[in-house]
Amino acid sequence: MVAERYVVGDWGTSRLRLFLCEGRGVILDSLDGPGVAAVKTPFDALFESMIRPWEVLHGPLSAVLCGMVGSSIGWVQAPYVACPAEPEKIIDGCIALRTGRVHIVPGALCENRFQAADFMRGEETQILGALTLDSTLRHGRRLLCLPGTHTKWVLLEDGIILEFLTAPTGELFAALRDHSILVPSEGRPAKTEGAAFEQGLNRFNDFPQAQVLHRLFECRSRLLNGDLSARNAAAFLSGLLIAADVSGALQLFANSIAETTLCLIGEPPLTQLYAAALQRQSRGAQQLDGAGASLAGLARVHQYIASRVETNAV
User: Fold this and answer.
1) List of domains in the chain
2) Which residues pair with 173 in a beta bridge?
3) Nearest to residue 136, comparing CAs of 312, 308, 254, 262?
4) 136-168 pLDDT, tens per residue?
5) Number of C-beta neighbours around residue 208 at 10 A
6) How far is 241 from 213, CA to CA, in rounded Å?
């Protein structure tokens, strides 16, 4: 018997990644398309045109999508699920389209530790996948870090998202790298790892009590006195910012996680940078590939919805 085929996709602001899958997320084929911000035609028409060749071969396909496709600028706005958010609560919040054949995963919201509203969209699916890939994350209190443009620090308890905090570390890095004098033009783009990154980590940790705002000009001053080359300025800046992000988050969540090993979920080059920063704080870090976690989360949502449909049919 041939396993059911279905489609999953991460439709973000700048990129669409679609996968034809079967079973528990075995990839049979994949497609790339425009991100939400670049879509100029109706979303349903674009989506149907992209999966049509697959449907010609395999018949009508169900699909699960996550990311900005469920935002106010996407296909449909999927309401945020309030924390504490159990996995089933997130999946039950999916919005159904195309007569129930397409489901869009909702985001999550909370009041963070600064008593401010905080939001995520797309990361919740990676968290669902992480819980599937590593069963130990379903037990006890765990701190997850999903580094990126908007890094998320997420507190779990028994697999439930209790709260989270967003740090726009990647966005701040890109803005300072590309639009400030801290990084000279010949240093853009530049590697963000290596000795200069390590130097940035170490320099932050020399004075951990200092606000990062009071440290940033060091990127420029070290260029002027010759301690830092132009091509290494971006890496040094990255080290300062990631060290500040990690140090601040560990202080905020210190009473909640004790000596728990953290879990980093994201692109391996970036999670490795965060793991290096955590090592400076004497904290271990498990690393999960973000793309793999997203795929596992989407497959989990599909399986849950498919099983519920089968149960209702009976």
Assistant:
1) 5-134+298-313 (3.30.420.300), 167-289 (3.30.420.310)
2) none
3) 262
4) 999 999 999 999 999 999 999 999 999 999 999
5) 13
6) 10
Residues linked to residue 5 through DSSP beta bridges, in sequence order: 22
Q: How far is CA 280 from CA 36, 60, 140, 249, in A?
A: 38, 52, 25, 14
pTM of structure: 0.93
Nearest residue to 47 (alpha-carbon basis) of 76, 79, 22, 71 = 76
**What does the alpha-carbon distance between residue 238 and residue 240 come to, in Å, rounded to a whole number?**
5
Closest Cα partner for 247 from 287, 291, 289, 203? Answer: 203
Asked if 21 and 299 count as a contact pair (C-beta separation under 8 A), the reply is: yes
SS3 214: helix
Rounded to 5 degrees, what are φ and ψ at 135? -65, -20
| Cβ atoms 55, 106 nearer than 8 A | no
Tens of pLDDT, residues 192-248: 779 999 999 999 999 989 999 999 999 999 999 999 999 999 999 999 999 999 999
Q: Are 28 and 48 in contact (CB under 8 A)?
A: no
Q: Tell me, what amino acid is at 64?
A: V
Residue 91 and residue 148: Cα distance in Å, rounded? 24
**Of 180, 184, 151, which is closest to residue 167 (Cα–Cα)?**
151
Q: Residue 90 and residue 124: Cα distance in Å, rounded?
A: 8
Give the gyration radius of the chain's Cα atoms. Answer: 21
> What's 261's DSSP letter?
P
Q: How do strand 5-11 and strand 15-22 relate by DSSP bridges?
A: antiparallel
Residue 268 is encoded by which pair of tokens?
């391996």
d(CA 88, CA 304): 9
Q: Hey, what amino acid is at 307?
A: S
